[in-house]
Protein: YncE family protein
Amino acid sequence: MKQVIGIACATLALSACASTNGGTYGAATGASATHGTLFVANKRGNSLSLIDLASGTETKRVESCANPHELATSPDGQHVALACYGGTSVDIFRTSDLGRVASINLGENARPHGIVWHANGDLYSTAEGRQSVFWIRDPLGKGETFEFGTGKRGSHMLAVAPDGRTAWTTDLGSKTVTRVDLLTRRAPISVTVGEEPEGIALAPDGSTLWVSARESDKAFALDPVTMEVRHEVATGRFPLRIAVRPQGDFAVTGDLEDGGLSVIDTRTATLVRSIALSGAGEAATRQQVTIIWSDDGKRIYAAETGTDTVAEVDFASGKVLRRLSTGEGGDGMAILGAR
Structure:
């Protein structure tokens, strides 16, 4: 069942931001043992990889849809959802063996990209080709889909509120960020944020919306209700993605043209350090794209699409611990800690 719903702003009760000391990164962990599973969408290889983090080896690779991009794991860790950017569906696989168990079609020209598997059990995805956001209720059961138009070109990446009432997109073509009320028929709110906003991440407590604008070389802290810009922070060049540490104390941008990371103290909205992942002249070859945190906030994983690798970075020291091999054009990633 598919319903098309118009939407708009409604007030959320969002708590004030709480973060730890801006200068504390946690104890240095060096090359201590890493456990868990990393999933990688290989956009040029049209495949999905499973990497065992204990050994650092790819243990499974299966064919996927065309040009797969972002990934999200289910709250219970049993499944991973894949946005089929080259098609119209969100496909779901078992995390144990990458067996495909469901394919949810979002309609003509959908081009799903950003994806969130919420703690409430539902899936949310952008549909860039339809200028909309989809709410997929009971994805492993009835798979009901509800569509919310953004009215903006290139609705690409996605964040969803902890209570599931609101979603936010970055709209590359329109150079805007859009707030979508998922429970009413009110119109969405869109604001211009820098040049070509792409990365987006919500603080764990829902108090601040972080956006990276790749042509501005900046990160922006927005009020998620009013959509007003609270702070601007200069970053490295071409900050394609932004990710907030699970503890909420730091945000990191992945700076494509620098081949590095910019670390932002979320309490003070200041740049506190930079982490180099690529040597001089390497950035263009490695083509760093997606970045994600480990569940414990000790590691950052950066997909290097040009070299079919993922850099595993120790956050405390800023050292690249190892590079993990993926399929061709590894981009979107999702992670599960040891269970």
Summary: Helices lie at 283-286. The chain has one domain: 2-7+35-336.
